[in-house]
Here is the input.
Amino acid sequence: MMPWLTPEVRVLLAALAVYRLAQLLSLDDGPLAVFARVRRWSQAHPAAWGGWRWSVAEWLACPFCQGVWWAAVALPLLVWPTAGGDLFLLWLALAGAQSWLEGRRS
Here is the structure.
């Protein structure tokens, strides 16, 4: 655990990390367009997911939906902080801040 990361700072880092993950998977193409391909595949192959098809396709396309679930994943990193978890949050938070600032440029 990094001593300079107060609980308030850790929450801010988690918020930016969740923002980046939700944007990355729901809106960005990703490396080699992997995320775009997964989104297209989930919408084009109804038999693959059975009754879950539309739920998965909608989740993959919705940054708000993904934000809820990524927040649940980030929660243990806030409740039980570790050095590795802090580095993970910091890494994604830096990417989230850059993404947020880039979106404000226009």
